[in-house]
Design a protein that fits this description.
Chain lengths: ~300, ~300, ~300, ~300
């Protein structure tokens, strides 16, 4: 298949498309981004790298980091992890307290904020230096040790984390947070402020397309069985209140972030990422959703 | 792969497994079923039929019929269908009125009762004889014209349909039901009372595994693009409040019914069904879930 | 106290007040009313009748009828009535299905629609001719046998009662409606379409101000103990989602209707009614609320 | 009326009554209380003091303190206070986050925890030394300067305040908390740990029965108009999710606390308090509710 041709088509279509999305503005650091940034990168198991646009510019990965923290936690723990966080789609906005209250402090899944905070709590309990080890994990799966957080984004999010502090306190009242709230919140904000490019993210996501192994040297980062489960969670819960829509239109497991990034995979085939900062009303990159929908339409195959 | 051997293993494991599920009892006709019934059938694109147990005994397909009615409605209408029903997982029990009220009478997806009632309303609007045409559809995709409803189940459900009448009236108050409530309810109860065996259901579900085509003669029943979308909805919404769990443990698109049946598919590979009447607390067949989980574990591959 | 002077002041103030309320429009018959209608009537135990404006023109009493049907039901039954309907304020709009679903079909109180429908069901079970006997009750407590329903309002509401049919079906699924849904709905719509004037309503409400006795001839219509309980329910639940606001600003037990009427009482002192069809966003008469607030402010005394 | 005789009857009846309530146990300090404690005190405008049992033993007033903090806040601010907290009953448990989330961080009323935390925030903004000034307020309205907090209860509650910290963070995310979360929480826990006896509480509540004036020397503590409004809030919101039940059975404005205390008033007549630590499932003193119901039944008059 002529992947570069397909990507060029997507780029051309995207340039003439109207985009009514809005850049995330809840923290000043995210609001400052150039809204016209747009990049895409496709990394195929059989045929390597394709891309266009701002594919090499780093952006704030935000919630996409939840996939990495979940992977790290699942590599440390087995099923006991899922006694503290469920794997069901939420049906409510990503930072909702409502289901959490009805369901006794057990978050619906690891990709809503509450669930990611429980995962952060697990990492604080299990790792000596959780911030560094999480960053190291991104270095290992990308082969790039220059990946780092944006300290301005980190500081800015720390100052606007009342909603997450509320979730943490609520879960602590139910006994589902074991560590100090401040420490857990610190790790969570840290992971959200990591910056990566489309190309780096696609490289990182190859382990999810390749049964848990790095493509470069066949290192098994995490078992194939666990990768399948992470992919299943991405499929049903990766896009906030729009997971069904993404599954319906795109048909791939993936995860989005409010920085405008989306990473998705076709198991056994490829990892793909897109970045455009303007978000649709559900909080997902409007152009990124479109680009991925066009990819599976033009290639004619999705996981379904 | 030695499919029959794998199925025999699943059967043997299942026989020694404790099963705390309960047979659905909201209508007497369902409560009367022998709780020890157990059958499974696998229909592979490349290698044909495998099965065991009560695979040839017909049972009440109940909510599995929602896949057929959705398929019929999607073959008649295009995207306008999804202005009246969404494709997001629900996060609430299958017959909940709550999200419906918050979301102005637009059901979350076509597989919760409210959504299936909207689909039934669409069929009433679009077809001359909707009951017969829906039954004909099952005849066409199975090649078996003896498939029929169970009139006792039909009568029994008609007498216990206050909750569905409540949903219909609520949606009608929002303008999302166009026809007479009694007529729509009648069609919905009719489709739920269809009886099929595991083997017949697996044969019917082959069109979802085979890009919309019948395996026997390559007839395109519905377009490949629409089949992908139906599969995506099965993946995210097919198991009531346990869709994530099924995706996590089994990793296939599928649909369950309170009669104890489950049908699932691996696109490009096979359709598979299991039947055991004892339901877990979420309303899905306990042993059926287990059997399908074992299938993807023992074969070592799911869509993820 | 110079009651007529106080009423004249309220009238004068009201005429120069801007009123952003909207006439109820969910049925055509209510939408047709002249929005500038305004009347008020005060009936004091010690000093008789005062009033102004359209105090003698009949209007659709709508939900105010729920006080009469509750009174009739409480005169027939004792505490067992409150096993089927609670006495707590609702915190949700008057026709919400949500709390009903969470609370197993037991309505929050007799003044939300669900609760009034349970009361109607009780009357259908207990009375030979519930429609006539309810109308007779209004004749008895007013001394006016010409009070009747408006048949156009009745027909119009019957055609727009999907939401109430939804509530009835939902409660029937929980076993909390004993009679045929159609019959119960018919009685409920009937009671809502009764027409009375401000003066007639104030006369009727005198039994709530006068410990259950008619002022004219001391007939005990219902026990003083039960009247206290009805008054308590009016205080906490009489104004939909604005009961607290009415209590806070006016400080009297009362009941409003979407026809723009409000009836309230000061136990041991007076009954008072106001009518102005323009409703505030919570569904209560905007000018009626104001008029009653001014009454307790200018007289300087409320029940608190 | 022979008030002491009525109180003696209530005492005698209470002693032979079974009590299935449970002492609050969420903090060890409250769990340690002798569950058999029982006292009642009635303070009449015209005839002075009556009482029995443990009426002079101090207990943790807990949420009853919310009446004092609201009174202090209303004496400092006027209607602008009610832009930050509503006056509607809640329909949800006292510490629920749900309505708060749906209603953009504006608590339903000042007596649910969220509302009392907003009031505490107001006091932190308005007073130089809010803890001392709140304690001084209890000294002024009782004439007893020995009233103080229980430091063990204070410390114990501080360690178990995750739920309140969650509420504060959630409201801060909506901009409805202006001060440092720790400071506001500190004041709130402080006020809850104040200890008073039945007699002291009844004396304090006399200002609510006496139009805002102290009975001893006619000092106007707060305007009659504001007192009426506080009484209205007590009537509709004073008993968590059981305000309607209390209004229905007792018919007086009042406020309860998880320490087992209840304070209520009959405007123009009396203030009355009861204390028994065993709580019913809604969190109100079971015997206290009974005692007050008997009081209004035996005296034959409530505000209704």
């Amino acid at each position: 298949m002529e992947y570069q041709q397909i990507l060029d088509t997507i780029k051309a279509e995207s340039l003439i498309r109207s985009n009514t999305g809005k850049v995330a503005s809840y923290i000043p650091q995210l609001a400052k981004i150039d809204p016209e940034k747009f990049g895409m990168h496709l990394y195929c198991i059989n045929s390597g790298h394709y891309g266009f646009g701002d594919e090499n510019e780093r952006f704030s990965i935000q919630s996409i980091s939840k996939v990495f923290s979940l992977t790290l936690a699942m590599s440390l723990l087995d099923n006991e992890l899922f006694e503290r966080v469920d794997v069901e789609p939420s049906g409510d906005p990503f930072n909702s307290l409502i289901q959490l209250e009805y369901e006794n402090g057990i978050p619906r899944n690891p990709f809503i904020n509450a669930g990611a905070l429980v995962i952060a709590d697990v990492l604080v309990s299990s790792l000596k230096n959780p911030k560094q080890e999480l960053l190291d994990f991104t270095h290992k799966i990308t082969g790039d040790t220059t990946i780092d957080i944006n300290p301005n984004v980190f500081d800015s999010e720390k100052k606007h984390s009342y909603r997450n502090a509320s979730l943490l306190n609520l879960m602590k009242s139910f006994g589902n947070i074991k560590n100090d709230i401040e420490t857990v919140l610190d790790l969570y904000v840290y992971q959200c402020s990591i910056e990566m490019s489309c190309k780096e993210l696609a490289t990182a996501f190859m382990i999810y397309a390749n049964s848990g192994k790095q493509l470069t040297d066949d290192t098994q980062i995490i078992s194939a069985r666990k990768i399948k489960r992470i992919n299943a969670i991405m499929q049903t819960c990766g896009f906030y209140d729009e997971a069904g829509e993404f599954s319906f239109r795109v048909g791939l497991p993936g995860k989005s972030g409010v920085g405008g990034g989306i990473a998705a995979i076709h198991p056994g085939q490829y990892a793909v990422t897109a970045w455009s900062p303007k978000l649709n009303p559900k909080g997902n990159s409007e152009l990124g959703m479109y680009a991925l929908e066009r990819l599976t339409t033009l290639t004619g195959f999705s996981i379904f």
